[in-house]
Amino acid sequence: MYPVIFETDIFDLLSEPWSLHTYGLLIATGFLTAMMLSKKQAELEGEDPERVVDMAFYLLLSGLIGARIVFILTKFSDYMKNPMEIVMFWRGGLVFYGGFIGAALFMIYYCYRHKINFFKFADIYVPYLALGHVFGRLGCLAAGCCYGKPTEMLWGIQFPKGSMPHHGQYAQGLINYEEVALNIHPTQLYEAGAELLMFWFLIMLRPRKRFHGHIMLIWLALYPVIRSIIEMFRGDKERGVYILSTSQYISILVATVAIVLVFYFKKNRANITESH
User: Fold this and answer.
1) Exposed e or buried b for every residue in 115-154, given b needs 16+ CB within 10 A?
2) For 166-182, how does the pLDDT look when each residue is reduced to its tens digit (9 = 90+)?
3) What pLDDT score does 113 carry?
């Protein structure tokens, strides 16, 4: 776990050291990679690449806001003790689904305002959304968030004292504070690997898609299943109510949207623009 790459006070010019956080760097890397690949895909499909770039920055902003809001809601009492930490997203503390919902709502608005095909642009972005998510989960691994349950499996990983998993296990009564953290499921790597496979699958599907929105629909059907399975291995508590986590509830919502869109595409099959 390397949450901070380096710190500097610029030869004592700063009152407090400035830190480059691994989480923030990987989020930025994932975003820039996804944006550049989406721009190239837009050119291949005859769309204005600058439109893609323009939209991407707004999607990033709305996504960060949505991701942060959902995370804060899951730990509202903690943030009320120190409200200044609300804006410190680079330290970790983003919920992917919140980011997806925030970005999706803005994209619907953007496409409506500029009279462009939402489903076509969604298909351009979605595979690279999966790729960008790979970087995001690696950032989670570095920050220590989104961690797994204790395990005796050979691939279990151990975080140092003072990390989020260590604090979480202490709060759950699994260890004493002076003890080292227990080995846990590397859920960040589980999801990063699943997202990488999904990225490859969606890229392979692109030449065979039957209508605009096809790739988005596949993602909407696959990701909730993957996320719900991985949630069963998560060890960070206070992330939901009753027997399901917040992300599992949202997975149900996303899967429902996918089902609704299936019926929409079937009903409007004659009016849907073919991809070729």
Assistant:
1) eeebbbbbbbbbbbbbbbbbbbbbbbbbbbbbbbbbbeee
2) 999 998 999 999 999 99
3) 93
